[in-house]
Design brief:
The protein is of the alpha+beta class and 92 residues long. The chain is 43% helix and 13% strand. A hairpin with a 2-residue loop joins β1 and β2.
Length: 92
Amino acid sequence: MAEWTFLTNHSHVLVCLSENPDLRMRDIAELVGITERATQRIVAELISGGYLEKERDGRRNRYRVITGEPLRHPLEQSHTVGELLQAVAQRS
């Protein structure tokens, strides 16, 4: 795997959940290449920041990405999460 990438782990987690809202933390961690604990922290931050919503579905969680939210960095605030996902997600 590359030593660095253009996108953060937060954006990688958003991409994973936008493509499959039913993923488990361990599956996201494996896809992103981080620990399950780091994944849990990132998901919690995305929820508290208003970028993700979590819904309990039996024993599993289902996530919804809030695509209308602006990106956080001042250089990117004129763009939304949805625009980022359209640019990088593997939509078929």
